[in-house]
Amino acid sequence: MSEPTGLAWVALSFAKLLAIFVVYLGTVAYTTLAERRISAWIQDRHGPNRVGPQGLFQPIADGIKNLLKEETIPGSASPWLFVLAPALAFVPAFVTWAVIPWGAPLPTPWGTISLAVADLPVGFLFILAISSLGVYGITLAGWSSNNKYSLLGGLRSSAQMVSYEIAMGLSTIPVLLLAGNVAMGDIVAQQQATSWNAVLLSVAFLTFLVSAFAETNRLPFDLPEAESELVAGYHTEYSAMKYSMFMIAEYANMMTAGAFISTLFLGGWDIPFTTWDSTGAPSALKSAATFAMLYAKTLFWLFFFIWVRWTLPRFRYDQLMALGWRVLLPLLLAYIVLIASVLLALDAVGIGRGGAYVATLFGVNVAVVAVVAFWLDRGRLVSPAASRLQVQELERLRQVAARRAAIAAAGSRGT
Fold first, then answer.
1. Contact 382, 315 (CB under 8 A)
2. pLDDT, tens digit, for every residue of 370-388?
3. Where would a tag sit more exposed on the chain, N or C end, judged by fewer CB atoms within 10 A?
4. Beta-strand (E) ranges in 147-202?
């Protein structure tokens, strides 16, 4: 069945936009409740549980509270830019999800429609381009507040986004090498034909995940906020709904990152261990089941983001920069060359995209992960504070310390 045209296409596109937006915005709102309840569970305490059954109305109460609170603008701030900054952070977060295919095509009486709001042929590049615009809102918020803590938070955010945007972009190049296209639907189809990219490109998957934490300013990469150092960072001077827009943008970016990771590396809407969803004629049941699958994968990543926040400590700023520039960047450059060489070798010997193809790529990634783990475990690049002393030098210093302690003890007995 062909795609709908004319007024039918306009009406179905609007209905699709409205439905996915409601689900998306509702999930973002209740992720704030999930953050508080999961953190309470991890810390063995009670979270919000008074507003509605099990606290389910808490996000609604928080939204009403922020709408009714007084809006304040510091007297020394730049008022127009101060008001514009939350919008610049908010809008990109709510645009990037539009190109994600949320399920198998849906048949209608007027034709088959894609479950991506905007099924762009360059959807992959669209997400990378639009998501990077959010840093302008954060940087502008820090500068326009005319507050030293806000300015430091904005500068940290800009440096962090520049550093890890490079790593995120490089980690997606192996995905493009396998898929041969930048369309999100083709990337999902490639994984359905072979295996999930988390298996075929494990190093790219792990580095993309680390970069996603940095891009969303989540612990252990929340240096732009860093409450213990910068009060609240770039949104120190914000209140009421303008403050909420930054928080909504953060959780929206988390959801987009989760859906993007799932699409690039976990098969997207593909249901594992079955070909029912990718073969045969389109049906409403297939669309609903595949939507539920991608939504479940996205919820898993939301839980993972929250779990990591309440488990790991914050990086120091020098550690954050060292990880991005001295570890991820050279690692990904070497990895891209390696994967391209392996793919050329497999094509040269005539190995098709079957079991041998998957096993070869999986074995290469296991070897690379083992080497990288051994390399990082020595504590010489990620943590500049780690000791670089050789064992012999350390033993010599211990002997010197022991002799000094013996001399001091003899002197004290003589006196």
1. no
2. 888 877 776 555 555 555 5
3. C
4. none
Q: Which of 215, 301, 219, 216 is CA-nearest to residue 258?
A: 301
For the beta carbon of residue 308, count every other beta carbon within 10 angstroms.
Answer: 15
Closest among 84, 128, 98 to 245, alpha carbons compared: 84
Q: How far apart are CA 62 and CA 30, in angstroms?
A: 11
**CA-CA distance, 217 to 158, in Å (whole number)?**
11
Is the backbone of residue 74 left (phi > 0), alpha (psi -120 to 50) or beta?
beta
CA 389 from chain centre, in angstroms, equals: 36
Least Cα distance to 266 among 296, 243, 287, 289 occurs for 296
Q: How confident is the model at residue 303 (pLDDT cuts 50, 70, 90)?
A: very high
The token pair that represents 324 in the structure block = 């991005």
Give the pair of three-digit tokens for residue 141: 């918020």
3-state DSSP helix/strand/coil % of the chain, to nearest 5:
70, 0, 30
Scored b (16 or more CB within 10 A) or e, 327-357 reads bbbebbeebbebbeebbeebeeeeeeeeeeb
Sign of CA dihedral 399, 400, 406, 409: negative
Q: Higher model confidence: residue 208 or residue 183?
A: 208
Q: What is the pTM of this model?
A: 0.85
Boundaries of every domain in the chain: 6-384, 388-415
Alpha carbon of residue 223 to chain centroid: 15
Angle between helical axes of 184-193 and 240-265 (0-180°, round to 10): 40
Structural Rg of the chain based on CA atoms:
25
Cα separation of 368 and 69, whole Å?
53
Q: Region of 285 please: left (phi>0), alpha (psi -120 to 50) or beta.
A: alpha
Reading the block at residue 257, the tokens are 């990152």
Q: At 271, is the secondary structure helix, strand, or coil?
A: coil
CB atoms within 10 A of CB 32: 19
